[in-house]
Amino acid sequence: MQLKPQDFLLALKLVAWADQRWTYASLALALGLSASEAHACVKRGLHAGLLLDNRVFALPEAPLGVQEPGAVYLLPKRPRRAPPGAMADTAAGNPARVHPRNLAEFALFGAKYAFAADTLGPTVGVPTSHSAPAFAGVFAPGSDDYVWPHPEGSVRGTGLVPLHPSVPYAAMQDARLYEMLALFDALRIGRARERGMAAQRLPTLIHPPHAGTGGASTHG
């Protein structure tokens, strides 16, 4: 089951949404996909290990020296009742969640090769890579700005084919997703300094050293 660019996009969107509740319909709407496409993305993400199924959990690996070392058993999760007066975890009902370590590793070492960059001629569009708004003041603007071609774009630069056609739309709706997509593009087409910054920043956004708890907002 081969990963597709939209699978990586969807996984980054789940990072951006953190612990917020989502449905396939709300996820599809936010990414400019159909609900069936979103469902297929989650299925491939689970198969590749970029996502985790919320309906199962893995027992700890068996210690060395016992039969079947390292075996993992998947068992149904038992529903947990929230304490009286407490708000239930809104993410508990989500079909899947991100596997942060695996996704960060893939973003840094695999995705730029699996989804190699294609550049176009000069065009107007939405700035990406080091030209994105998140990096204003970090890198001086220059003649080598990169943009995703888009009719609503306001910056002229070298066109970069986005990871997926819906990327400009999805990025303009979500600043955190936009930052991760721009960092990913910096890994794909940036100069040494830009790639170095992206290599430090992107994995930290996906897999923070000390992840906190998310909010209780609901999507859909």
Overall description:
Strands 5, 6 and 7 form a three-stranded mixed sheet that branches. Strands 1-4 form a two-stranded antiparallel ribbon. The radius of gyration is 19 Å and the shape is globular. By secondary structure, the chain is α+β, with helices and mostly antiparallel strands. The chain has a domain at 116-206. It has eight helices and seven strands, in the order αααββββααβββααα. Helix 1 (5-17) crosses helix 3 and helix 7 (175-189) crosses helix 8 (192-206). It starts with a helix and ends in a 14-residue tail after the last helix. The model is unreliable at 58-90 and 212-218 (pLDDT under 50). It has helices at residues 5-17, 24-31, 35-48, 100-109, 111-114, 167-173, 175-189, 192-206, and strands spanning 51-53, 56-58, 74-76, 96-98, 119-128, 146-149, 155-160.
Computed Rg: 19 Å
Largest sheet entry: 3 strands, mixed
SSE class: alpha+beta
Bin the strand percentage: 5-15%
Q: What portion of residues is helical?
A: 25-40%
Shape field? globular
Q: Could you give the order of the helices and strands?
A: HHHEEEEHHEEEHHH
Number of strands: 7
pLDDT < 50 stretches? 58-90, 212-218
List the helices and strands and how they pair.
Layout: H1 5-17, H2 24-31, H3 35-48, E1 51-53, E2 56-58, E3 74-76, E4 96-98, H4 100-109, H5 111-114, E5 119-128, E6 146-149, E7 155-160, H6 167-173, H7 175-189, H8 192-206
Parallel strand pairs: 6-7
Antiparallel strand pairs: 1-4, 2-3, 5-6, 5-7
Helix pairs in contact: 1-3, 1-7, 2-3, 4-8, 6-7, 7-8
